[in-house]
Amino acid sequence: MSAAIDKAALDGLILRYEIEQFFNHENELLDSRRFEAWLDLLADDLRYWMPLARNRSCDDLAGEWTREGKDLNWFDEGRFEMEQRVKQLATAVHWAEEPVSRTCHMFSNLQVVSQENGDIRTRLRFVVYRNRTETETDFFVGKRNDLLRRESGGGLKIAAREIFLDQNVLLAKNLTTFF
Amino acid sequence: MDAERRGGYQGNLVNLDDGLVSREIFTSQQIYEEELERVFARSWLFVGHESQIPEPGDFVLGYMGEESVIVNRDRNGRLHVFLNNCRHRGMRVCRYDEGNTRKFYCPYHAWVYSDEGDLIAVPKLDTSYHDELDRSQWGLIEARSASYHGFIFACWDEAAPDFERHLGDFRFYFDDFCEQPDGTHGSLEAFGGIFKWRMPCNWKFAAENFAGDYYHQPSHASVDQVIISPAGVKGRHTYDSASRARKLYKLNISVMPEGHTARGELFQDDYDYHPTYQEMAVVEDYFRDCYYKRRARLGEKSRWYGHGGTVFPNASYANGTRSMAMWHPRGPHETEAWRIFLVPKDAPDEVKSVLRHYVIRYQGPSGLTEQDDMENWGYAHEGARGTIARRHAFHYGMGLGHERKAWPVSWLGGEISATEDVSEQNQRAFYARWAAMMDAPVEPGRLRLRSEAAE
């Protein structure tokens, strides 16, 4: 192998490690309920989108997921809306989160799909476990595509997140957690 | 224990003279099963909106009670509501949430039905059925259906009155919900997709909450501290920025004996448009223009602003988000909620976009408002289950005896009852209708299939 290929492979590994650490840190913030700090990871022009999944025929799959910016979605939000959600969590009278949930955010199958001009596109699988009050338990499992942006200071921000939750009828009574 | 041994519902489990309702009606398996027969199989149920199926061949699935139905527009443009159930072995003949088709194909033994419900193909009809199966008798089971301003309702009971008679004096309020912002009717469209989710409570908790619970403001103490309304101010309603400074009656309206209920505001004077969407010129212009058109069109009646209500039994509407919820029963202890949202078809894209974002963050499981409702419904349901708890009725007595007729203005409807501000009048109307239906046994022959009724 030439030195040039080794350098590319090494750069790829380093980037992947950095992204893993970034998502690990993000999940740590969410699971320890440091939501204000989590907001700091979001770009000002954030797009945060979770469509609905529809049962379709294999020859008609184009409409399986509802469209961003057009249809109903579980989330179709910008940063301002995420800030409002975080503020609501801090009111202590948001009954759907009083008492607060215990969450465990996990991811695997991380792929760095592309990297161009500081825009890094990733794909992964996620599992979010939630338990609250005495026995309420939810598992949210799905696929997530992120657009991370390299900031001028060198750090990463989440510029866009697409969350594909593999459920048709939502099997939870609410979506008070972040993905 | 059947209802007769319990002494029936009216005056007993549902004792509205004293404003008391037994917790049993939320949790008993036996009562639930009676309810499917006596309420759901005999009532007009909301199943979808015409804009979900605009073209010939379009279909969308819905539910009537626990049972899947196909809501479709056939090749000739006619609407149908079919039980999604093969006549041979009961397999679903349609398993896609929506689509376009001319026929429904059963994957089990390949019986095939047309988009008009006719059984058009049966494998081995000649060699194994010996041509002795009369296909004309084995079409899909079809419900009565009615489209009202594009809202499709269906009913299994041939003896039930027509849909418009079933609405009764409630027409004024449902018309108001179906109205476009300029006071005209007829061209609302649903956004793509249906919110569908499960809630751990009896369906009646949701229905009665929407029917008339202005008392549950504490549920929403958190959302009112943040900004979700496109008006850009704190408070979950768009009208929060305007109405508090104006003289109005906040009213609960119930229509008996049908059991439909509405909530809303009746302004005591004509007011000018209140600037609401000040940072969005196109949206502001649209709603200002509509406001004056509606006033010119409706005159004094434009002073009524509906907030929401429940079309008995399980369709709840919300005017602010123009949404229609269906509370589908899933056993006594669980509900599958469905919700669609509608916008004026001809509104500018900017208006549709603002409304779409608003409704997504208001209602449903990701909505900052309804999340807190469901927490209360779920644990209120749990509170109805206990052996000891069940011995103690719920109190529905707020405002009992203070209902007024033809008030504050006669045009709100002669036979309606009205109470001001916070009251449980509407919940009592809902349970009065529910109890009356539950006390009426399903008589043999009264609840007939459409094909049988024609014989």
Give an overview of the whole structure:
- The complex is a heterodimer of chains A (179) and B (455).
- Chain A is an alpha+beta fold and 179 residues long.
- Chain A has helices at 3-31, 35-39, 79-89; strands at residues 42-51, 73-77, 102-116, 119-132, 136-150, 156-165.
- Chain A has a six-stranded mixed sheet with strand order 2-1-6-5-4-3.
- In chain A, a hairpin with a 2-residue loop joins strand 3 (102-116) and strand 4.
- The N and C termini of chain A lie far apart (40 Å).
- By secondary structure, chain B is an alpha+beta fold.
- Chain B has two domains: 45-144, Rieske [2Fe-2S] iron-sulphur domain (Rieske Iron-sulfur Protein, 3-layer Sandwich), CATH 2.102.10; 169-439, Naphthalene 1,2-dioxygenase Alpha Subunit, Chain A, domain 1.
- In chain B, the strands form five sheets. In chain B, strands 13, 14, 15, 16, 17, 18, 19, 20, 22 and 23 form a ten-stranded antiparallel sheet that branches. In chain B, strands 6-5-4-7 form a four-stranded antiparallel sheet, with no helix packed on it. A three-stranded antiparallel sheet of chain B has the order 1-2-21, with helices on one face.
- In chain B, helix 6 crosses helix 10 (425-439).
Give me the secondary-structure topology.
The complex is a heterodimer of chains A (179) and B (455).
Chain A: H1 3-31, H2 35-39, E1 42-51, E2 73-77, H3 79-89, E3 102-116, E4 119-132, E5 136-150, E6 156-165
Parallel strand pairs in A: 1-6
Antiparallel strand pairs in A: 1-2, 3-4, 4-5, 5-6
Chain B: H1 3-6, E1 14-15, E2 20-21, H2 24-27, H3 29-40, E3 45-49, E4 58-64, E5 67-73, E6 79-83, E7 98-100, E8 103-105, E9 112-114, E10 119-121, E11 144-148, E12 151-155, H4 163-167, H5 171-178, E13 188-190, E14 195-199, H6 203-212, E15 248-255, E16 260-267, H7 281-298, E17 304-311, E18 315-318, E19 323-329, E20 335-344, H8 349-362, H9 370-382, E21 394-395, E22 404-405, E23 416-420, H10 425-439, H11 450-453
Antiparallel strand pairs in B: 1-2, 2-21, 3-12, 4-5, 4-7, 5-6, 8-9, 9-10, 11-12, 13-20, 14-20, 15-16, 15-23, 16-17, 17-18, 18-19, 19-20, 22-23
